[in-house]
Amino acid sequence: MKNFIEEVTWRGMLHDVMPGTEEHLMEQMRAAYVGIDPTADSLHIGHLVGVMLLKHFQIAGHKPLALVGGATGMIGDPSGKSNERNLLDETTLRHNQDAIKGQLARFLDFTSDAPNAAELVNNYDWMKNFSFLEFIRDVGKHITVNYMMAKDSVKKRLSSESAEGMSFTEFTYQLVQGYDFLHLYREKNCTLQMGGSDQWGNITTGTELVRRIASGKAYALTCPLITKADGTKFGKSEGGNIWLDSARTSPYKFYQYWLNTSDIDAEKYIKIFTFLSKEEIEDLTEKHKEAPHLRLLQKRLAEEITVMVHSAADLDNAIKASNILFGNATADDLKQLDEATFLEVFDGVPQAEIARIEIETGINIVDVLNEKTGFFKSNGEARRALTANSISVNREKVKEDFSLSNKDLINNQFVLLQSGKKNYFVVRVL
């Protein structure tokens, strides 16, 4: 067995762990689980730390269980929340579960014959036929209200700072999660639950149920909640969550998020979100410190995680898209961009619309720059820029005799105008 605790410790992925966990894991192959509430049909990068924990667990020779919380997703976890979440119906939860499994399969081995192949489990499967009376008799009687009230997640929601208070539904969440651990202990010989540091109270309720009901010994491990050095929330952009689903967050935007991390964050994230070795990371960090302007850490981090979540082809396209604004991209590079990526690269750039029929007959570049788009205020200003050789169409310099036509369209609908190095204008053909 590889030393899992040692691995996650140097990577900065260990916040708290029950005494004896390391020794327990070194004895033989063990099973551990991480819970994911299926509130959407995609994971976002906030879920990735838990997924990486499971992957390191599997690499160390142990068996990872990914628990999709169909039952707990119907309740809503109060931990770290100020409001109760919306409840989902079973059809939506099943759809979300299937989508999430597809994403997890990029990280975890679910299909091999290895004894430590990963499994996906759903707590709805064992909770749906559990009657309320059975639950409060068989589970509820073993945990006191005093014990439940002492949990930080409960105390915060019941404090004077919280105007919402807490429903009985949410109050029972830790019992339901605790029962998950007991069930997996009995059915899958699972002895460890892992999660974010805000989950410690819920996890230890599970270890307590294993002790009191099954007379067993179970363990808890948490990782730190990921933060950014500037105090803003990790995993968020101006457009919201950074999702793993390319339809929600494009590979280009995904790549850019990691590329734009600060030096301090990149040094921390490359340990957590890649599988590079300690020696590789230390060497890369030293080289980065010698020439921080090259952003070696950010580039390697963005490359590794984009390939892991998407593909090498998506990474290649994201780099090409990035080079359009910041590198020496050509007209051919531009024409390879799909519509969504093109619009994301030039988000915020002024735009104008031109009728397709006008493009088909050809429009003189001076008219395009002034009358048709307003990129320049007058024909004279446009001509002076053309004479100075500072106007480009799709990154290629043009003269005053240039005529814009169908052959210049990107994705059969866009034209990129450029004045000098940094002034861009997008023409959309309708």
Automatic annotation (TrEMBL):
Keywords: Aminoacyl-tRNA synthetase, ATP-binding, Cytoplasm, Ligase, Nucleotide-binding, Protein biosynthesis, RNA-binding. It holds the Pfam family tRNA-synt_1b. L-tyrosine binds at residues 33, 173, 177. Residues 344-427 form the Tyrosine--tRNA ligase SYY-like C-terminal domain. It is an enzyme of class 6 (ligase). It catalyses: tRNA(Tyr) + L-tyrosine + ATP = L-tyrosyl-tRNA(Tyr) + AMP + diphosphate + H(+). Gene3D superfamilies: HUPs, RNA-binding S4 domain, Tyrosyl-Transfer RNA Synthetase. It comes from the Bacteria. ATP binds at residue 236. GO terms for molecular function: tyrosine-tRNA ligase activity. HAMAP family: Tyr_tRNA_synth_type1. Belongs to the class-I aminoacyl-tRNA synthetase family. TyrS type 1 subfamily. This is Tyrosine--tRNA ligase. It comes from Flavobacterium magnesitis.
